[in-house]
Amino acid sequence: MIDLHTHTIFSDGKLIPSELVRRAEFAGLKAIGITDHVDFSNIDFIIPRIVDVAEKLNRVSRVKVIPGAEITHVPPSQIAAIAAKARLAGAKIVIVHGETIVEPVAQGTNSAALDADIDILAHPGLISQEDVITAKEKGIFLEISARKGHSLTNGHVARLASESGAPVVINTDSHGPGDLIDEKMAIKIVLGAGLTEADYKIMQKNAASFL
């Protein structure tokens, strides 16, 4: 399995990067994205450190570590600017924290994210059909989430993505030791969203584009 959305102590995760990657290796993951939460206050601090640790761990780990960032609770009008800054800082995966129904994300975040230079719209909640079509047109991945709460709208996201042909990935949004999953559990989550094992394989091909 490839998991493109995780967090460490650089934001609100519980693990240092080395332990996160070791646990991912133990769980049988092929690759992992470290995508800590950023806004304009911390982006210059976090991304260079993730880039540095990814480089060091990739020398010795069987798990490919991909440095990235999750733009989180940033006002919609500022998302494009911070996404560009994340790229310049070395982020290989740029995620935006979508309009999950379990957090007070600003209305318009999904649309603004899809207008920016990003790779994944995470847990996009009750995303509109118009935004799903935009994701398809721009090749931005919509996320099926394994995380408690965010996963409540997986079925809605999966249905609209299937109807429109928008690309999808499955991620854990891991914050702690118990959040990582293996491939067997990932397939169950995909099936629970109303998709198929064949869809899971497509999701993994989508994720592999970051390798």
Kindly state the mean pLDDT as a whole number? 98
Percent of sequence in beta strands: 15-25%
Helix proportion of residues, in percent? 40-55%
**What is the count of structural domains?**
1
Distance between the termini: 13 Å
Helix/strand order: EHEEHEHEHEHEHEHH
Features:
211 residues; eight-stranded parallel beta sheet; alpha/beta; single chain; TIM Barrel
Describe the structure.
The chain has 211 residues and is of the alpha/beta class. The protein has one domain (2-208): TIM Barrel. It has eight helices and eight strands. Strands 1, 2, 3, 4, 5, 6, 7 and 8 form an eight-stranded parallel sheet that branches. Strand 5 (93-97), helix 4 (109-114) and strand 6 (120-122) form a beta-alpha-beta unit. Helix 2 packs parallel to helix 3. The relative contact order is 0.16.
Present the secondary structure layout.
Blueprint: E1 2-6, H1 17-26, E2 31-34, E3 37-38, H2 43-58, E4 64-71, H3 79-89, E5 93-97, H4 109-114, E6 120-122, H5 129-138, E7 141-145, H6 154-164, E8 168-171, H7 183-192, H8 197-208
Parallel strand pairs: 1-2, 2-4, 3-4, 4-5, 5-6, 6-7, 7-8
Helix pairs in contact: 2-3, 5-6
Sum this structure up briefly.
By secondary structure, this protein is α/β, with parallel strands linked by helices.
